[in-house]
Design brief:
By secondary structure, the chain is of the alpha+beta class. The protein has two helices and five strands; from the N terminus they run αβββββα. A five-stranded antiparallel β-sheet has the order 1-2-5-4-3.
Length: 117
């Protein structure tokens, strides 16, 4: 087979619509610079657009994995982005608070003002 036939055969391979497939960046992976109950800052040289909605899967080590909805609120080109959480399930919000408290107990108020104590 010549190069023309291989190219034609490649184009004839089965395909699916792009709205069916989810993509998760494995490498390079964004790194969390800081995390709070209300949002996070991600170090990533590929920041999204300000105002763009996002869905994030957060692996909180022994606390498990949670999914949150957010909005890109700040973009620092070539550095990263600030994301405000716009929807977090109540149980997941508690998990974030517990995760932060375990890492930095002196920075988390015992009662908190989020009604999750």
């Amino acid at each position: 087979m010549g190069a023309d036939n291989r190219e034609r055969d490649r184009r004839l391979e089965a395909r699916v619509a792009n709205d069916v497939v989810e993509v998760e960046f494995i490498a390079p992976s964004p790194h969390v610079r800081d995390l709070s109950i209300s949002g996070m800052y991600l170090l990533d040289q590929r920041p999204l657009l300000r105002g763009q909605p996002v869905q994030l899967k957060l692996n909180l080590s022994s606390f498990g994995t949670i999914v949150v909805q957010g909005m890109v609120r700040r973009v620092d080109p070539g550095v990263g982005m600030g994301i405000e959480f716009t929807h977090v399930e109540t149980a997941d919000r508690r998990t974030i608070k517990q995760f932060i408290a375990r890492a930095n107990p002196e920075q988390v108020s015992p009662g908190g003002d989020d009604g999750l104590s």
